[in-house]
Design a protein that fits this description.
The structure is a single chain. Helix content is 69%, strand content 0%. With 224 residues, it is mainly alpha-helical. It folds into 2 domains: 38 residues, no CATH class; 142 residues, no CATH class. Helix 6 packs antiparallel against helix 7 and helix 8 packs antiparallel against helix 9. The protein starts with a helix and ends with a helix. 25% of the residues are buried. The protein has 9 helices and no strands. It is globular and about 55 Å long.
Amino acid sequence: MTVEEFTHQGVSPGYEGLMPAEDCAAGFAYIIVNAKEYHGQIADPFAPLMKFGLLPIIPHVAPETHGEPAFDRPTTAGLPLEKSTACSQATEYATELKEILQTVNEEFNEMGSFAKRWGLRDFQKKTGLSVKDWLQTETDIIAKLQGLFRTRDSGDVRAADTLQAQLLSLKPILERLADYFQSTQKDAKGFIKDPTALSAALEALAYRERVARSLIAALEKINE
């Protein structure tokens, strides 16, 4: 592959481009100090940074108004009806996606030793996180969405804006997860020969992809 293809194949969410060397070193330092926690697993610097909330926040740029009259937009802390609805939908999708990932984890555990290792490695390579870290990420997303509801009562605009930016910064990695579910549909066509079994597998995999993309759409709606 070209240099450009190589440097853009694994861009971490939270960064516009490659992870800076200092951040990468900080993540690996944690992994070295806590080596037992990562025994038998693929280790990367992104996971500990996400675990402790140390990822930078990519600011969300509002679209240009193109001459529309100026007015005060409703505060995010107030959560207008459309945002409240999107927040509720996002919470439902995040909860459903967590259940899907628990099922994925169970499916990997039912595989033979070699197939399991290969499958887990392929999953992390394509999605950017291990199944374990994805489950924690979904838990964090749900907690942040619930935090948005709480800001409606407290009126803490800054906290609400921070939560929204953090949620939107996860969009790139959620897209990688959705793309993974899409690619597994293509893989299934090559591995499963029984038409009935293939149809059931494709339906289940397509549902997983829809849930992931629906969560992305709901998060975007919150940030409009």
